[in-house]
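## retry 2 of 3
previous attempt timed out at serialization; input unchanged, resubmitting
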Amino acid sequence: MAKKKRSILEAATVLFAEKGYTETSIAELARRTDSAEGTIFYHFKTKADLFVAILADIKEGILSEFDTYMGTCRFENGIEMMEKVISFFLYLAGQHEEWFLLLQRHHPYEVARENEECRRHLATLYNTLLDLFEDAILRGREDGSIGDLPPKKTALLIFSMVNGLIWLKSNDLYDTGSLYQELLTSCRRMLIPQPIENTGVSSC
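## retry succeeded, writing output
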């Protein structure tokens, strides 16, 4: 990607994340990148095209980071895989706050109702992330570190918990770092098979 186009894309990502789609103007983006508005429209035909390009870039960035991490990490069992996926997800959200703040705004999903390319980028991103959580559950069911739980529904619940903490942090509503251990403890309680208690009542 050309240096100027990359500069525009990165600056626009920050602006859309901070101000939202409607409140971000091409004029402000031009000032921030020391570009003419015509230069921006040379690289991106419309503001909507620029926004979709940003979503594609965020998707590729997140998935590339996870792909690299998963390719170099080794897990003893499914529960360890789950904990490390959660940990890396939170780490990534801290390293690229603008990505996750933008994703948590309303506009990407509003655009996705009408724009097939936007919907495809979001679906690919979230389905891939959910697959990581589901893979950890399936692995844990096989090795006994995770109980006999419905993989897809359980993956969605845990993903929602993690993404909820990221939302709180991104919007400066709570110091979610203090909840990290509690999050892992809650996930363990949900996932690890519980021994059957002996109630002392004999069956007939």
